[in-house]
Design a protein that fits this description.
The chain is α/β, with parallel strands linked by helices. The protein is built from 12 helices and 11 strands.
Length: about 290
């Protein structure tokens, strides 16, 4: 007689989810990992430790959640699917686990107020938090950009995302992948791609390959200028135009900033270094673009 499947084995999880009436939805990025060795490796790559406060977005069937809780982290998981929330509540009743049912994004450009309130430490909790997730691909970009820009208490990131997304986040100025989030991450910390994860590792397998991206905030860096995000987003909407043309109403070709930074008006947004973007934002002194 064989033993019953482990509570978190692939067979048992999928059976339990089917019993609840769950069906995978591609639009929600529901691709689950079951390989315990891989999950533990991802948590090691993230660099978190026992007692750390962790935000997990899109826990799905809780396979990564389980590893985080076994490490004795304080985990807040945000899940939009009601059936998965029901499943997670039945599986995890530890006091260090908190589940928020809903969307982590209130709008395309605004984080959920419920999530933001939960990120503030309560009495006795450590200050600062870490984002560790198998992120739904559709929200990865805006979520990471907003957390980095708006939450200085975000200490680190360890997320599984589409490979192309991770490549954008580590891209350098002058490459076609370089964009708004590349600028924000480079100005605030140090990021890298720690490992690749093939599509076959997921259930169901996505149509793309994935990478695990890690980032650690450098607390010695200067705070982001107030108008930086709005400025960079605005300019990258016209990434094929020259910066001189994009900003012709705000910054004349004779302005001293061009000479001080050694920047030509013919430069394109993706050719500007992160430090040059920070300097330009300071030049505008939070003026809207």
């Amino acid at each position: 007689m064989t033993d019953s499947p482990s509570l978190f084995s692939r067979q048992r999880v999928l059976e339990d989810l089917r019993a609840l009436g769950f069906r995978f939805q591609e639009k929600r990025g529901q691709n689950f990992l079951f390989d315990s060795n891989l999950l533990e490796a991802l948590v090691r790559d993230s660099g978190i430790e026992a007692g750390d406060r962790v935000l997990e977005v899109g826990p799905g069937a809780g396979t990564l959640t389980r590893v985080l809780l076994e490490l004795e982290c304080q985990v807040t998981s945000v899940e939009i699917d009601p059936l998965l929330c029901q499943y997670l509540r039945e599986r995890f009743d530890q006091p260090q686990f908190r589940l928020i049912e809903g969307d982590v994004l209130e709008t395309k450009n605004r984080l959920s107020r419920r999530v933001l309130a939960d990120l503030d430490p309560s009495e006795g909790q450590r200050k600062g938090f870490h984002l560790v997730s198998n992120l739904p691909y559709s929200i990865a970009g805006p979520l990471v950009a907003m957390l980095v820009a708006e939450r200085e208490d975000l200490q680190s990131i360890g997320v599984l995302v589409q490979r192309e997304m991770a490549q954008r986040w580590v891209a350098s100025a002058g490459s076609r992948e370089f964009g708004t989030t590349s600028v924000l991450l480079a100005l605030t910390g140090i990021g890298k791609i720690s490992r690749s994860v093939p599509a076959a590792a997921f259930v169901p397998a996505p149509r793309v390959e994935s990478s695990f991206f890690t980032w650690t905030r450098d607390c010695d860096r200067a705070p982001l200028p107030a108008g930086l995000v709005k400025l960079v987003r605005h300019c990258f909407q016209f990434r094929r135009k020259t910066l001189g043309k994009i900003l012709r109403q705000q910054l004349s070709p004779e302005d001293s900033w061009w000479h001080q930074e050694g920047v030509e008006t013919s430069i394109r947004p993706d050719q500007m270094t992160p430090n040059q973007w920070a300097s330009l934002a300071l030049r505008f002194d939070s003026e809207s673009v």
